Structures are given as C-alpha cells and as structure tokens.
Task: structure prediction
Amino acid sequence: MPKPRPAVEEATSAPRIIGGSLRGRRLEFLPDPRTRPMKDRVRETLFDLLGTRVKGAIALDLFAGSGAIGFEALSRGASRAVFAERHFPTADAVVRSARALGVADRVEVRPGDVLLWARKLPTVPGPLPTDAPWIVFVSPPWEFFRTRPADVLALVAALERAAPPGSTFAVEADTAFDVGLLPDAGAWDVRPIPPAVLCLK
Result:
C-alpha cells in the first residue's frame, strides 16, 4: 500500500520560507516527533492576515521548532526575532539557520521551556525587547492544548500584559481546541483552516 506522501514529506523535509526577501530559502530541520512544522498554507494565510503589521515589529516565535514562523517574519520585514525552543539540539539548528540566512545579527535564541515564562515575566529569562510592537506566535504541539492547557493560556495572558502597545498575538491550535478559553475570547479573529485554527488579536 503506498505511503501518504504529502504528510510524510511535510513532516520530514526542511521547511522553506514562502515570502519576502528570503523567499525560497530552506531551513535546517531535525525531524523529531516533538517538532510539528506549521503547514505552508496555514503559514501563508497567517502572514496574509498579518499584512503590514509585520514590518518593523519584533517577532516572538514561541515553541519555535525549525524557526519557520520567526524567519518568515524576518523575511517579511520584522526588525528582529526571538526564538524560544525547549529541545536544545533544535534550538542549535535555529542558530545555524540564522547564520546561513545572514540574519544572525537580528536573531536571539532562548533555549528552554517557554511555558515557564508565565511565572517569570517581564524580567526573566532576561528582559524581552520592548522598543517596538511584538508579533507573538504561539504554535505549540497540539497535544499541549489537552495536556497543559492552563500553562499555554497563562503564557498568552502573561505576554499580553507585558507586550508593548500595538502588539499582535497569533495562536495556532487544532480545531478541537475551545477558542473560548483564550483571554478576552471575543476579541480574537478566529480562522479555521482544518485541521488547524488560527486566532489573531
């Protein structure tokens, strides 16, 4: 019986940047069950919705994995990107991708469990830059919405309190997630893209 090629290829091939000045460049990628790259069509929809808000903003790519979302933001005009990734070899791969793309001077990688930030913001694990609006990307392993939902929601709420004026939040979950649990739930623009759902605020 033939293998389901699209799903296998997306899970194991290096993500590419799909728009902006770095369009078409590939990122270093360590295939790992802990890393779930956002599908290209979801990422493209996300950045279409964000539009010009990306330009000059500081991208916070939480649960970074390959860093595809943060590098996409840099490609489309973000001034800087902070990547948080708890799997240390994957975090090291993000550093190598930044060097290969020529954007290492605009990238900061913070290894460790980003869910712990909710208890430590705004000063730990080191102050986040606040001289420009943030675009905060929250795209964790979907199982976290079932196994650690309180931690994910606490992180979103803490970052909202710490964010500079004019910041934007983007949460990607699966369609099973109850978006009504998000802080100030009615303020989010919810876009189902099965099996994902994008929530922007």
Notes: Residues 5-200 form a domain with the Rossmann fold fold (CATH 3.40.50.150). The helical segments are 5-12, 40-50, 68-75, 88-101, 144-147, 149-162. The chain has one domain: 5-200.
